[in-house]
Amino acid sequence: MRIAGIVIRRAVNADCERVIDLVSSVLAEFQLPFYPDSKDADLKDIEGSYILTGGVFEVIEDSQGHLLGTYGLFPLSEKTCELRKMYFMPEIRGLGLGKEVLERAVEHAHRLGFKEIVLETISVLKRAIYLYTRFGFLPARMDHPNARVDVKYILELSVSDTH
Q1: Which whole-number Å values give the CA distances from 148 to 28, 80, 118, 152, in the listed order?
Q2: Average pLDDT, whole number, for the chain?
Q3: CATH topology for 6-156?
Q4: With a threshold of 0.90, does the pTM exceed it?
Q5: Which long-range contacts (CB under 8 A, 24 or more apart) does 110-113 make?
Q6: Share of the chain above pLDDT 70, in %
Q7: Which helix (H) or strand (E) holds 105?
């Protein structure tokens, strides 16, 4: 980690409650719904939903262990994973962590053998979309827009992908 006092580590199920609190808090900040029994049910069993299915879920903490952010790579198929739950607390936004976390996610996806990363987000999250598109994510067809997602992006991974 390039920012002093910040640690990124693999999440375990002992983190679930704190992750749920962070994700629901960030969603509420943007007046977006939290769906504990459907879209966000994966957070009740991070290890089963992400790690044991061949994906990744990591948490970002400060030196005192306070949770500051999250992200996950959820396998959709042998070649495609979905970037999910990339949320940061307000105090760490704008520090360059987004780019660093995306670089980490791409490295994980490469190592796990994925050929593409997809993500769905909502157009009100303009800073996030700016980050994704600057990183190389391209708009894709959105199949099922709803109250939480209305745009989709895809990043084709190549052997030489380095950002």
Answers
A1: 11, 21, 16, 12
A2: 93
A3: Aminopeptidase (3.40.630)
A4: yes
A5: 110/157, 110/161, 112/54, 112/55, 112/56, 112/73, 112/75, 112/81, 113/78, 113/79
A6: 95
A7: helix 97-111
